[in-house]
Amino acid sequence: YLRMRYGNKVGLAACAIYLFLSQTIGAVALFSASLATATVFNVPLIWTTMGIGLAGTVYTALGGLRGVVWTDCVQAVLILMAPVTVIAK
Fold it and tell me: Which domain of life is it from (predicted)?
């Protein structure tokens, strides 16, 4: 849409910015999960990073986007139920 409305340069710039930001967010998420896992289990960070990355890749490849969406739905329900559980206690 941006390319059609504002021109090719704006479309390419938006594409580059989106690519950079999405890769950065993915890297931060992978690193934070790996760091937490490495700290808890006292395993080298490189092994946890490789393991989590491989697990996510295999899960997405086998389950497809549909599996990822269903996992996100279950995660959303759990996140929404956590405050209710804490307050009810």
Answer: Eukaryota
